[in-house]
């Protein structure tokens, strides 16, 4: 131990090094800021969801069973968490085959660090919940049913989704919609799926009917890895979005999409795609509409579609319905682009459009210059990895939290 370093600081350093699962936590009777693994996770927060504390100040609940339901299961732990803040951890590595979606109440952390925890066939629903942290989990839908890996909806807020590995969902891998806001999605790997992410969605034939409800959405995406997907990485409408240092690689149809007065600041992202590559899609993806689809034929032109043209995803419906509903809002998004990097055959598509309407984020954040080295870092650390990710140099000594 260095001279002058307190025992707690030394324990905190160990916890950070070994993914928050250090034996130092054994002495913690509750999940508070003095627990090394709790502190090491919370210092990683940034973006619009940075206020999420999950089960801080509540109690630990340990999952001991890999069954869908019953004593010791994750479903039972979430039911207990309705009684008060809970920090849920796992006694061992486990694979849980779910019969139905798990509902996550307010003031909950589901913390899979230090274990290999996989949810199969269904995922997590965050409905009207506040103050939720989901970290270090794998969710694989196996294309078995129409559901989502993570669905943040119905006025949820202060949600942090971190270090998840999400794949093969017949609906979407992740949604933030229906009046939900203040969400951060970080260091998550999205792969082998079709329609990846919706940030708001149209729930009426009148495109702007729910604009007042949904335009409050504020979402940060950083250091996520979109790999071998088809489209919607993400698709954003109405809200305020900050996307920095994400890696999009080998999409088959298109990369990002923004429309309907979304306000998006897109900076330091890396787009990498090749015209000559093998398609890894299944024979078809089942869809919500009951149509079986495959997008392999688009691979030769996919690198030219790092994004759809501004507003193009909803332009047809907008023009068809404008006279009926008297639209005065724009079908395009308000975009500000900065320092994005295009590798391989990938080409830029998005351009600034009314950039003054895409606000500068009101928070400190660990921005890194987009380089091939950063791309390799994201490949290495995004997903359900062993532990916490080292803070970038731009966060250290910057005056930002952590």
TrEMBL record:
Chief subcellular location: secreted
GO biological process: pectin catabolic process
Catalytic reaction(s) noted: Eliminative cleavage of (1->4)-alpha-D-galacturonan to give oligosaccharides with 4-deoxy-alpha-D-galact-4-enuronosyl groups at their non-reducing ends
Domain of life: Bacteria
GO cellular component assignments: extracellular region
Cofactor(s) listed: Ca(2+)
Signal peptide start-end: 1-24
Assigned EC number: 4.2.2.2
Pathway the protein contributes to: Glycan metabolism; pectin degradation; 2-dehydro-3-deoxy-D-gluconate from pectin: step 2/5
Pfam families: Pectate_lyase_4
Keywords of this entry: Calcium, Carbohydrate metabolism, Lyase, Metal-binding, Polysaccharide degradation, Secreted, Signal
SUPFAM superfamilies listed in its UniProt record: Pectin lyase-like (SSF51126)
Residue stretches making up the Pectate lyase domain: 93-277
Any GO molecular function: pectate lyase activity
Subcellular localization(s) per the UniProt record: Secreted
Family (UniProt): Belongs to the polysaccharide lyase 1 family.
Alphabetical list of PANTHER family matching this protein: PECTATE LYASE 18-RELATED, PECTATE LYASE 21-RELATED
Protein name: pectate lyase
